[in-house]
Design a protein that fits this description.
68% of the residues lie in helices and 2% in strands. It has 179 residues and is mainly α. The protein has a two-stranded antiparallel ribbon with strand order 1-2. Helix 2 packs antiparallel against helix 5, helix 5 packs antiparallel against helix 6 and helix 5 runs parallel beside helix 8.
Length: 179
Amino acid sequence: PNVVVKVVAKMMQQAKRMWSKKKYFGLTTAAWIFVAVIVLLQIILRVWFLQDHIFFHAEQVRDFFVVWNAWHSHEWITLGPIQADTNGVHLGPGYYYLLLVFALPFGFAPIAGPIMASVLFIAAWVVVFWFLATRYNLTLAVIFGLLLVLSENYFLYSSYALNMNVVFLFEALLIIGLM
């Protein structure tokens, strides 16, 4: 029995060293497991509470009509509709092309908007976590990750499609690109 305990202890030490030293894209295996667990938890929570947090307001209807009309009339979206609260300012077309990528597989159903927002926010979470863990330290990344995932405002804001939802991901990518 003593030999078995020593062998198991030695194997555990080797596994621990391997896990803590081997890195993939700058993160250890344990960090990637943490990321996978958090992403899986986010997906489960979003699907579980999806029917309670689906919002389909006038702006989302307008956006889906713009995308639907562009797809069915075979016309490029070169300029989005006029923004409601500012006179004469048009929305850019980038959001509508991104919405089109998610609306097509779902047959232009309203569920495509929340799915797009959830995917963008989860991707942004992963990008910012990776950046903080590789640039600064893993402790800061874990604190950031848990605070953001446990935030109710983050969950609600990422539950419906708005033009501003793409900002979090692309802002993170821009800041990382400038560093």
